[in-house]
Write a structure and sequence with these properties.
It is built from ten helices and six strands; from the N terminus they run βααββαααβααββααα. By secondary structure, the protein is mainly α. Strands 1-3-2 form a three-stranded antiparallel β-sheet. A three-stranded antiparallel β-sheet has the order 4-6-5. The protein starts with a strand and ends in a 5-residue tail after the last helix.
C-alpha cells in the first residue's frame, strides 16, 4: 500500500493546528520539508507524527527552541540497527518509546544534552519517529533514580563509568571461562559470572556504607 499523503490544510487539521502554525514549524525546521508537486505541498504520516509530538512536548512544558534542539540531537543519533549490531541483547528487552513518552519517564530531565549523551552511550537509538531504549531494566532503574532526586546527567555519567568496569569484568570472566571450559558452555556458565559480580558488589556496598564519612 502506498503511504498516505495530505495537503497542507488537511494535515494541519489532523494535527489540531492552524495552517499558519504549520508554516511556522516548517520555517523553524521543526518538521522536514514536504514533497512538492508543482505548487502543491504534500505531507505524509511522518510529518503528522512529528506535529503531534511537537504538540505533546509543548503540553509538557518544552519550548519550541528546546524541541528544535531535541530534534537535532534525535536526528543525529544512530539508528537501532547500528546500535544493536549483531542482534538484540540476549538478556535485555529493548523498549520502543515516542519522544513524548520518554519525556514523561524523565519529567524535566529530557534535555538536548542528556539526549545526546544517551544516544552516544547507545542507551537510545532511533527508528523512524520512534526512540528505542536498549534495556527495559536500565530504563526503569534510571527513571527510579531520577524520581528519587538524582539528576539524569549524573545517572548517565555513572552509567558511563560503570560500563568501563563492566567491560573489564566481562573480559576477565570470558577469558577465564574460555581457558577452563568448552566454548559451547560459555552461555551456560554466564549466570555464575553474574552471581560473583552481584555478590562482590553487595559486599562492597556493605563496606562502603559502614565506613564513617571522612571529616
Amino acid at each position: 500500500m502506498e503511504a498516505r499523503e495530505y495537503r497542507m490544510e488537511e494535515v494541519a487539521e489532523k494535527a489540531g493546528i492552524t495552517v499558519r502554525t504549520l508554516r511556522f514549524y516548517r520555517e523553524r525546521g521543526l518538521i522536514p520539508p514536504p514533497r512538492r508537486e508543482g505548487r502543491i505541498a504534500w505531507y505524509n504520516e511522518h510529518h503528522l507524527a512529528r506535529l503531534r509530538t511537537i504538540a505533546a512536548l509543548l503540553e509538557r512544558g518544552h519550548t519550541l527552541n528546546g524541541i528544535a534542539d531535541l530534534a537535532t540531537a534525535f536526528e543525529s543519533g544512530r539508528d537501532v540497527g547500528e546500535v544493536l549490531g549483531l542482534g538484540e541483547p540476549t538478556e535485555e528487552t529493548p523498549v520502543r518509546l515516542s519522544p513524548e513518552v520518554l519525556a514523561d519517564y524523565f519529567e524535566g530531565e529530557v534535555t538536548p544534552e542528556n539526549l545526546a549523551t544517551a544516544l552516544e552511550l547507545g542507551y537510545l537509538a532511533t527508528d523512524g519517529e520512534e526512540i528505542v531504549h536498549i534495556s527495559r531494566r536500565l530504563l526503569d532503574v534510571s527513571a527510579a533514580l531520577v524520581r528519587e532526586g538524582v539528576p539524569l546527567a549524573a545517572v548517565l555519567e555513572a552509567g558511563r563509568q560503570v560500563r568501563t568496569h563492566a567491560d573489564a569484568l566481562a573480559e576477565l570472566f570470558v577469558d577465564m571461562l574460555t581457558k577452563h571450559s568448552a566454548d559451547d558452555r560459555l552461555e551456560e556458565l554466564r549466570p555464575l559470572a553474574k552471581s560473583v559480580v552481584e555478590a562482590e558488589l553487595s559486599m562492597a556496598m556493605d563496606r562502603r556504607l559502614r565506613t564513617p564519612p571522612s571529616a
